[in-house]
């Protein structure tokens, strides 16, 4: 399972990278705005800064909504760095754009996916990644994890190579459940990754080992 971090915060990206378990980064316009990164030039520079911190794929989202504009914008994003993955919303023109980039050999991440049917379309269009939003489904009393199971079943039935990128992850149990259900990738904030470290028996066990060692010294 690949671990991506879902943030535009460079300090958090560095911290996850230094932990040694980071496989990539996802961003979106809201995450950029949260870090105060606004204006096209600043946003493009920020993508390059992120690529220079991590080794893996970095999703950069188009803000266009028509096919013509999306392919122009996506081509420009892909030119920025060879780690850039063009992130495209699940809308009709987005499906066409996914096919365009797939045919060109440019990696894509289909975002804002909330149903198995949308995920099937993304795979048919050749998306590299599909991003089902788990937490936002849970927010409206719909089982987000069930969507991961449905997509896994459909992709396995036909051998689709599109990777399931579980997104809108809110806590460590989402990470563990997505791993159990066979998501290829999960993207979350730093706390859901570092939260996997925690267990009180680890802390108390280590304290006892160190105390016992020090008895003999
Ligand atoms: O990057 C997309 C997704 O992970 C957003 O998550 O927390 O805004 O629902 P959230």
Automatic annotation (TrEMBL):
Q: What is its main location?
A: cytoplasm
According to UniProt, the name of this protein is: Probable transaldolase
- What InterPro entries does the annotation carry? Aldolase_TIM, TAL/FSA, Transaldolase_3B, Transaldolase_3B/F6P_aldolase, Transaldolase_AS, TSA/FSA_arc/bac
Which top-level enzyme class is recorded in the Swiss-Prot or TrEMBL entry?
Answer: transferase
Which key words are in the record?
Cytoplasm, Pentose shunt, Schiff base, Transferase
Which EC numbers characterise this protein's activity in its record?
2.2.1.2
In its UniProt entry, the species of origin is given as Zobellia barbeyronii
Q: Which gene encodes it?
A: fsa
Q: Show which residues constitute the signal peptide.
A: none
User: So where's the catalytic machinery, residue-wise?
Assistant: 87 (schiff-base intermediate with substrate)
Q: What is an example of a Pfam family matching this protein?
A: TAL_FSA
Pathway(s) of this molecule: Carbohydrate degradation; pentose phosphate pathway; D-glyceraldehyde 3-phosphate and beta-D-fructose 6-phosphate from D-ribose 5-phosphate and D-xylulose 5-phosphate (non-oxidative stage): step 2/3
Q: Which PANTHER family match?
A: FRUCTOSE-6-PHOSPHATE ALDOLASE 1-RELATED (PTHR10683:SF40), TRANSALDOLASE (PTHR10683)
Instruction: State what this protein does.
Output: Transaldolase is important for the balance of metabolites in the pentose-phosphate pathway.
Which family does the record assign? Belongs to the transaldolase family. Type 3B subfamily.
Name the catalysed reactions: D-sedoheptulose 7-phosphate + D-glyceraldehyde 3-phosphate = D-erythrose 4-phosphate + beta-D-fructose 6-phosphate
| Subcellular localization, as worded in the UniProt entry | Cytoplasm
